[in-house]
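Input record (one chain):
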Amino acid sequence: MLVVKSIPAFNDNYIWLIHNNQGQCAIVDPGDATPVLSYLQEHQLQLTTILVTHHHSDHVGGIAELKRHFPNAAVVGPKNDAVAGLTYSVDAEQQLELFGEHFTVLSLPGHTLGHIGFYGGGKLFCGDVLFSAGCGRVFEGTAKQMWQSLQKIADLPLETQIYCAHEYTAGNLSFAMAIEPNNPQLHEYREKVNQLRAHQKPTVPTTIEQEKRINPFLRLESAEIIKSVSHRTQDLTPEGVFTALRKWKDSF
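The corresponding structure, as predicted from the sequence alone:
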């Protein structure tokens, strides 16, 4: 079994560290090398692999420095995203092995055109696509692409653990409560999140099952959500509801 730990970075990033029981580890989306190097030194871990989901600086900014300390570490990232210094570029459905566990590369465009995720062992490292109670902004792709990427994630097994790259849950819940205020599971989850954050504890990983209960971007057929966006769009198909929701969230 691989162990996953979070390394906080910047104001709200999570750099994920995956390690085995032999002192080897991988890092996912290292935007900043400093906290990673401190953690590796403290726990006497050897960095062998760097996984990258997309090219934004808060996900790749620490790669060069990490490579300076661990020159043999492989850098694995998206073939169709502008990530410099990759050892291996990977595309949709490619397989990779990490400490004996097999991961599949998922193509998840929308936030960026070449965004990918790494899925294996009941875990998904999805960068900035799905957040707890929310989803990423559409910067380079289209709303349709992001909607399709979220559907791909939603089709994974319910118990799949979602390792996203930011602590956005509390803010996302404010939006979710505004558009689906009568969802009792949303109220229950907000209380849990408030307690976690009051003690400075992370709210992720989450699960597919949890997100289908409370995340508006995975609940596009909810009658209450459809009613909430009906004054913003005439297209009340799931894709149309998603597009209206995402645009609304951008200015919320």
